[in-house]
Amino acid sequence: MSQAPLDILKQYWGYDSFRPLQEDIIQSVLDNRDTLALLPTGGGKSICFQVPALAQEGICIVVSPLIALMKDQVENLRKRRILAEAIYSGMRRKDIDRILDNCIYGKTKFLYLSPERLTTELARERIARMPVNMLAVDEAHCISQWGYDFRPPYLEIANIRDLLPKGTPTLALTATATPEVVKDIQEKLEFKQPNVLQKSFARPNLSYSVLYEEGKDKKLVDVFRRVKGSGIVYVRNRRKTKEIARLLQRHRIPADYYHAGLPTEERTKRQEAWMSGKCRVMACTNAFGMGIDKPDVRVVAHVELPDSLEAYFQEAGRAGRDGEKAYAVMLYEQEDGQRLLRQFEQAYPPMAEVRRVYRALGSYFQLAVGSGEGQSFDFDIVAFTNNFQLDLFRTYSALRILEQAGWVVLTDAVFVPSTLRIIVNKDTLYDYQLRHAKMDKLLKAILRTYQGAFTYPIKIREGQLAHFLKMPRAQLIKMLRKLHQDQIVDYQEQKDTPQLLFLRERVDADNLTIDHQLHNFRKNRQYERIQKAIAYAETPVCRSQQLLAYFGETDAEKCGICDVCTGRTKTEMTKADFQKYRDKIEQLLRQEKLSVEQLVDSFPPKRQEQVLKALEFLLDEGYIDKTEEQLHWNA
To answer: How far apart are the first and last CA of the chain?
Structure first.
């Protein structure tokens, strides 16, 4: 070992000490022990593999499903003068080839790979020749069919272990794992011995609240007027992001919106404005937030109920990473839960619909039966559905089913910058410049501005180059395309589209197989997760206790700062007792209207005080209506 972990932390990150549990995780890996690290969002997971990798000779392979997160981490490492590379769907084979060679013969310290690229024959052959010192598996819950974000390519990760030097440890990391998932991760990654290092998921500075509001817009504005500082508002669709941003702007709260459909440059610009404080609140889909380390977020608000407590915990956990008081606010109405259940039914279209979408993919990409395995394509789902007159939501749902069955992978948008390489020798280039005076100025600018254009593909920014040459960007691109056409340069234009990768060769749609037992298992698990999310919103028990119990911490103390603990939502009964009273009250009032006295008398005398508390909550939150002293259930 060349340096002590603390020295590395100080040298590259400027910190004098580790956060809780980081040092234990690092030491476990340095002792060559397979390790599962459970750290809450913002707990500093990347440090746990980056430091021990730097403390040893060799290269660290990092598996991650999130392309944006991979690229962010690679960029951050390079800023610290640490050599890092990333390989993901959408890259050209020769670029992948070059990166893999650098990992064998060069000084690359970190290789980030998307799981579907990890197990290609090209990657396997090169990985076997790399001096790997650690295999880090980020978002490790993706390996478990018990989890909320199962991804079949993760199941292949364990097969890579046989290619690595003997004794190479695996470090699995996640911020969201239930007890079943914790067990499953270790089994699927073939841990030599169980080894879980876990920091409590409790966030003592974070106040969770579920606010039952019919006028959500008014309440949202009120929240950001009352609580100063930076904030995030999560919604479920792109249209809503713009509506929320406009709402806040109308009330003089600096806000903007963010979703995956915006151009890369625009997303980057908005993210930077929010990070720097120029924009106070970002209204967004869950495309925003991954890998963003902004410690001083004071409020994370959810206008709609997420479809799992894992997703909610991760998104809400972006508030208060600096340890100061922060708020996770969910605005809820009873219809939200019903809406989520309706969406769940639509998310599992019949097999005939799945086959129709699969057949359309083959036609869209002009793939013959028996071809396509390992091929990746730019994929615009809107253009695809318009072309085949398919419903957008049902098509996306069918693609998710195909993905979970291991037929395809649909990635998030991949930004690949423009590249250019001069593919003729200097004499031929000089002759071309003499014969094409209009191109001469452009070629001279490229040679002056970019180093190495004869040797390897250089990244170019058309906007910057056009500004330097004082010409419109469109004209510059036209000229670059002409140079490519004339075979003077190899010019590859930037792209920013999701990728669709075929994991298996195309089959006739009638022969498409889905494991129905596994499909139904995942469907039932998702239904359970939705029910747990609804129960969290509708049960007046300490919010922190509910979340921690879901992740296996069943003996947690009341937080003292959520809406229930502070008395905004009044109750002192257990979650199980409340649910029992709620179910019985609903059953009675669906049968007939009753007065308060009649309802309470339906329970044993020793239970009546708690029944009254449950009834008070259900009345306050609109589950029960009272008309002329008669109670009836609000269906």
So the answer is: 66
Q: Are 150 and 140 in contact (CB under 8 A)?
A: no
Closest CA to 115 of 559, 579, 473, 503: 503
Domain count, the chain: 5
Q: Give residue 431's identity as a one-letter amino acid code.
A: D
Residue 21 and residue 149 in one domain? yes
Place of tokens 């254009």: 453
- Of 198, 230, 265, which residue sits at a domain end? 198
Task: Based on the fold, state whether residues 380 and 484 are members of the same structural domain.
Answer: no
Q: Is 211 helix (H, G, I), strand (E, B) or coil?
A: strand
357 and 407 part of one domain: yes
Query: 89 with 116: CB under 8 angstroms?
Result: yes
Mean pLDDT over 538-557 rounds to 92
Nearest-angstrom CA–CA distance, 398 and 251? 40
Q: Are residues 311 and 391 in the same domain?
A: no
Per-residue pLDDT averaged across 559-581, rounded?
80
Mean pLDDT of the chain: 90
CA atoms within 13 A on the CB side of 132: 26
Q: Which residues pair with 132 in a beta bridge?
A: 59
Q: What is the CATH number of the domain that holds 617?
A: 1.10.10.10
Please state the pTM of the whole predicted model. 0.80
489 and 501 in a single domain? The answer is no
Contact 294, 230 (CB under 8 A): yes
Range of the domain at 387: 342-415+497-525
**DSSP class of 227:** S
Beta strands per DSSP E along 355-473: 376-378, 408-410, 414-416, 419-422, 458-459
Considering the domain boundaries, does residue 274 fall inside one?
yes
501 and 470 fall within a common domain = no
Is 383 exposed, middle or buried, given 0-12, 13-18 or 19+ CB atoms closer than 10 A? exposed
Where in 246-405 does DSSP place strands (E)?
255-258, 281-284, 297-302, 326-332, 376-378
d(Cα 334, Cα 345) in Å, to the nearest integer? 18
634 pLDDT band (50/70/90 cuts)?
A: confident
Residues 328, 330, 331: CA angle, nearest 5 degrees: 145
pLDDT in tens, 93-110: 888 999 999 999 989 999
Instruction: Read off the DSSP letter of residue 141.
Output: G
* Residue 173 burial (10 A CB sphere; 0-12, 13-18, 19+): buried
DSSP reduced 3-state for 136 = strand
* Res 314 pLDDT > 60: yes
Q: What single DSSP character describes residue 60?
A: E
Predicted pLDDT of residue 1: 44
Residue 569 lies in a domain: no
22-70: pLDDT as tens digits: 999 999 999 999 999 998 877 788 999 999 999 999 999 999 988 878 8
Residue type, 475: Q
Percent of the chain at pLDDT > 70 equals 98
Q: Grade residue 176 by pLDDT with cuts at 50, 70 and 90.
A: confident
Our measurement of the distance from residue 257's CA atom to the centroid of its chain's CA atoms, rounded to an integer in Å, reads 17
* pLDDT, position 290: 67
Show the tokens assigned to 258. Answer: 């963010």
Same domain, 153 and 295: no
The reply to whether 347 falls in a domain is yes
The mean pLDDT of 535-552, rounded to a whole number, is 92
The answer to whether residue 337 sits within a structural domain is no
Q: Are strands 419-422 and 489-492 parallel, antiparallel or unpaired?
A: antiparallel
Task: Give the residue-averaged pLDDT of 491-518.
Answer: 90
Task: Count CA within 13 A, CB hemisphere, residue 581.
Answer: 26
**3-state class of 331 per DSSP?**
strand
